Structure of DNA processing protein:
Amino acid sequence: MNEKDYLIWLNSIHGIGYLTIEKFKEYFKTLENLWNAPVSEIYKIPNLRRNVADSIIKTRKEEYIRNYKEKLLSMKVQCLIKNEELYPVVLKYIKAHPQILYMKGNIKKEDEKAIAIIGSRKCTSYGRNIAYKFARELASYGITIISGMAYGIDSAAHKGALDGGGRTIAVLGSGIDICYPKSNANLMKRIIESGAVISEYPLGTQPRPGNFPRRNRIISGLSMGVLVVEAGLKSGTLITIDYALEQGKDVFAIPGNINCSVSKGTNKLLKEGAKLVTCIEDIIEEYNIERETCNIENKYSDLSQSEKSVLKVIEKKQPIHIDLISSILHLDAGAVNGIITVLEIKDYVEMLPGRIIILK
């Protein structure tokens, strides 16, 4: 038995979180002492619910821990604790750091260069497009996108990073064996292949409302800064911002329609000092990050040369009017119209009202 075994054991018990484990360490000095403590001593632990004490006693068996670890192994879930090399360095120094992390996929050193993109589950189509666009562009700078894999802004941000060929990390409010929402099963698979899905909650933990505010400290903790796209005045997104400010992280916000409920939170943040963001450069200039070299020929290998040329212009200038694309490339307007139509069919671009083109 070692420290990791004790943490796996305690974390697997419903009703024991990171704060309770800290209290155990203070009370018993070591978790090994808790493991070996008399039953009577466990029942004397201050403010410990009787049912939790019962669970501690019932599961205090090496066989229990061995079976749990075998289950993790069968599901290809890695288990990380603070003193291990793979545990994210940036999380080691935040207040109430996770005692244990379950992970599918992998976290790399380069993921320390990360921005969280968060916002409302009930976002507008504008918000969804903005989250996708910014995530995709940030990915082109080698920036990892952190979010929570929820409906709306979170999902759009993960998709943008992936479609931009970048890395992304999802922090769950459930056990890592539970995909929430279920409709994100394919997205979760893609994230695992190009980044990681992590959770501090044990296997089988359902996505209860109280889990999400707690996991938000991890989202901000993994990031250099947090970009809020859309959020209401009572949004859980603002809890993440509280954590970000406590952790000394940068806070960015997209201005929104003053008549739209999901913009009231972001507009309030701007009034309170968040940095107003209208383009990718507003974030990049804070960190002196240069765009990673990207070979357009390889990135869009399924496209014709003329299609690649048009995409290259859109990447640099978006949002851009279709007539300006024609002017820059010295192409007939009809030819550009035809190329844009093909790119829309191939799901590379989107035409907004007024014949404005953006990447999807």
User: Anything to note?
Assistant: The CA atoms of residues 301 and 343 lie 13 Å apart. The first strand starts at residue 78 and ends at 81.
